[in-house]
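Why do we bother with a discrete structure alphabet at all? Because it lets us treat a fold like text: something you can write down, compare, and reason about line by line. To make this less abstract, here is a complete entry for Chlorophyllase-like protein. Read it the way you would read a sentence in a foreign language you are learning: slowly, and without expecting to understand everything at once.
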Amino acid sequence: MLFRLCIVCAWIDRGGPDRNALTYVAADSNMSLYTKHCFAYRNGSIVLRTSTHRVRRAAVAALTATLAAMTAVLTAPAPASAAYSSVAVYASTVNGDAADVYHPVTGSPHDPWPVVLLLQGANVDKAQYSGYAAKVASYGFAVVVPNHFQVLFGQPGLYATGAQAGWTVTWAQAENVRAGSPLLGALDANRLLLLGHSFGGAAALNLATGLCTPPFCAAPAPAPPQLKAVALYGANNTQPGTGTTPPVSNTVPVALVQGSADGIGSPANGYATYQVVTSPPKLYASVLGANHYGITDAQNPAGARPDLSPQTLAQAQSVETAARWSAYWLRAQLGDPVGQAWVYGFGDLVDATVTTEFAH
């Protein structure tokens, strides 16, 4: 005797939930075994994924409840987290730093977009994040990507700092009322979120904990009260040369998105950092086959430290995957039910390139 449930699932492709996707779950009579089938129309083809799982009765019941909840959310006429199909970018200045600002394009009324600051990796130019930033923006964010120059180790270069968070809040407040601003009245300056890559991820982690650890922080810069969550890529809290990973006493939710082939910020150190994040919600998402530059437009950007560990995942796919998980994590921390169901529910079941661990 089988228990059956059919629902619409969120198969993300080309920027949004695909309502041509169908999940079918069958469990045996004692609910100890279930088989999951997911059909989706992707890139002109019907895709079928099948997986069989042996779990406890309570786990299947929880899965059923999650999927049933998603039916109501994803079959709604216009779910809050539906991705935008078009994104624009314009040049701006944040506290003297040249910045690119990515935002959705729509002619329809919308709630003000939360502001996302992307803190760059060491000597990685802002232009290298165009694909990643645009993808994150398509989930309903205004994404600000500055170039911040400072002198470290006796050399001038592109090095992010935690003070940029407060500067970005000030910029958003002004940009939201500036005559001629492409985002006039469209920003929610009371909700700031952080993305951080490598060195910039370490700077973001400093903000999330209230610490100031050189060289990622030149002077104490308290996190602005508008900061709601952070998502890091290729970053960790392991001390170079010692192998020790101090506790991360975070004051906001933290996600670590990690390439499994990262040869600079190792997966072992990334996972060790996740384990010592003290306050949920927290997420560890491993992207299979991505290396340290899985979110940049090209591998080993000029001027940055090269990753000698080759990436096996297509660059466009790693960028899209990391952006999707980062965006859904941020949306989940803002209370979006689709983001929460993706991160805490079935996202890693339908995403073959990602495995996750989380607490919330």
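What the structure line is telling us, in plain words: Residues 260 and 268 are 9 Å apart (CA to CA). Confidence is low (pLDDT under 50) at residues 1-62, 71-82.
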